[in-house]
Amino acid sequence: MGGAFSDEKEWVMAERKQRDIDQAMDPRLRPRVMTLQDARGELSNAAYLGTEVLEQLEGAGLIGTNAHHLRQEIAAFAVRLLELHWCGPSDPNKPS
What we know:
- The protein is flat, with a radius of gyration of 21 Å.
- α2 (36-50) packs antiparallel against α4 and α3 (53-59) runs antiparallel to α4 (67-85).
- The chain is built from four helices and no strands.
- It has helices spanning 8-25, 36-50, 53-59, 67-85.
- The chain folds into two domains: 1-31; 34-96, no CATH class.
- The chain has 96 residues and is an all-alpha fold.
- The longest helix is centred in the C-terminal third of the chain and has 19 residues, at 67-85.
């Protein structure tokens, strides 16, 4: 117990508050149910946003392709992997 807390109860409450903050900030700790269509959209957007460094690499002449198109390809590949491993309900818009 650190010197900033006057007693054990105060320390326990601070630990709980920090755990709640950590859980609220870490999306991996918040399971969600969503449709395949929703998951596709969220993953595609996240993959595209997560590859922003490619724009900087293109600007520095370190990659020999259009970064925007490469980012789109990476996002599409992530969606294909999601579809391959999907265990949730089937997509009603996709033929069986």
